[in-house]
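Quick look at the format.
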Amino acid sequence: MNKLLYVKKFYIFICLIIFPVLFSSAQEQDRIVTANEFLNYVSAQYGSINDYEAKIAITKGKEKMTGIIYYKTPSLLRINFDNPKEQVLVVDKEKLVIYIPKYRVIMQQKLKKKGGVSGAGMASKEGLKLLKKNYTVAYLESPDFVPLDDGSEEMVKKLKFVWRTADEGFRQLIMCVGEDNLIRRMICVTADYTEMQFDFTDIKTNEGIPDTRFEYDSPASANVFENFLFEAE
């Protein structure tokens, strides 16, 4: 049971990160003077993405999860994990469902109409405005492309977000935008300095993903934990 409690907390942490940030595409302008201007441009372009598919890797300490993520505006999300195998996270218009086959457990959350985890709250032009409102933003190293990692041939621009007040969920976020103008990595640091890294590769946008991709029939034999993030309205 202690192990299951740890898994539950782990997924709460994932949800707090995925839903506020998700991904965006940013087509670069010829001249970007400041980090705020760059963020404004990303926000202005955000609406051009109707749906996307990508490989995702989630790293927290020595733990690593991998899978395929699907997103469709305004609030449909699905991750099919291959590690852990057959694990699924789905968000439809009404609820969040996480299936953990190892424990035969379903964690289910009815989404609030306003605020809360739903949303893809930050996956929009308005969402990025909230980032700008609630965080200070600057280039991590320079306005130029820099290696994603030391010695890496992959070049990105890195933005650093720092909370304005301790009311925010994360004290710091680092966004890495690649030369293909897509977010390649998000690094999120909580108030207690817990760090989680999200890497996105093989991103495909505006593929016409059908709503049926986000339909999920949970196994009837699994135990269900309702409203594990917050109380339903």
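Next, a different chain entirely:
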Amino acid sequence: MSGTDWEIVDLVARWVHVIAGIMWVGNSLLFNWLDRNLQPSKDAAPGSLGQIWLLHSGAFYHVDKTLLGGRPLPRPLHWFVVQAMTTWGSGVALLIAVYWAGGRAAMADPGLAKLSHGQAVVIGIAAIVLGSALYDVMQRTVAVRSPRLASAIWLTGLTAISIALTQMLSGRAAFLHVGAMLGTIMAMNVAHTIVPSQRQLVASVGGGGIADPAVSDRAKRVSIHNNYFVFPVIVLMVSSHFPSVYSNRLSWLLLLILVAGGAAVRHVLNIRYSMRTWAAALTATLVAGVAALYAAVRLGAEPQLAVVADASTPVTFAEVRSVIDRRCTVCHSARPSDMTFGAAPGGVRFDTPEQIELLAARIHERAVLTKTMPPANKTAITDAERNLLRRWSAQR
């Protein structure tokens, strides 16, 4: 397939992924919100676990959570399954198109580890499988007796996998694959625990029996886990737009701060209806998260390039144009020689002096400060050339 073909796959898969993800996450957050706001009612039927009245789009809605208490199974009964599987499937398609086969983003970073593309792909896939398997084993064995121990073991595994990926893969790939691992766990919870538990409840009630609360509790436990994964997954999915984070020397720490911060914010929002000072707690959590993120970014920032030429000597545009023509326009051009990412990825072109001048700040940010361009340094730009771009930027 050509770069353009992969771009179409990327667009369609991304479109489906975002829409299905909105539907899945929206349903998940709504039902978890309902559970925290249900109130007992004297008029409720036997088996009721709480009721709530809602106002939306010009009408009143009455919701009653129940295990039916021996009553017959209602028809029709609406299930929420397709959104989760569609989100996961389209996410896998994106990984294939962008990283594994399409090559629209670099998996390996020669500056970190001497890996071939195939080896980097194997590591990324192995991380997703290993992290998901560790979580599943903990939930099915250890969590039955000690949920806290199971969580501690899995969080240790998550930390180890995150650190390992940031030391072996390109920053963007590492962040995305940790997010993909968490997303896979969420989909696995739906497919392997939530839906089978729901089928078991339906079968018991449909056969005239009483729904087992233990089955309901099992499904709810992993549903709450999914609720806490939502914010970390979202921030890791959008992290590819922020090279100062994923290309940082402390990218592993920044990744963990984003995951922990997202889960902490979700926790405060989950308990806000039973906590009078929730607004202050939320503010403190946000401030602490942003402060930790900023401190880590600054601490791990790359040191300035050493000056390899007389800084007082003006840099001519011709010198800058020469570097950009050799190192950048192979991709960033209306007619690129490297079609891996399609024509002019990100809409960035360096075909004319005006385009180069207009994007000088971006050139400085990506080629000098974060060193994320060229991707994985595929065109072998040198430190001397980066230094020249830095001096040119400073004299403007």
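The first strand starts at residue 48 and ends at 56.

See the schema section for token definitions.
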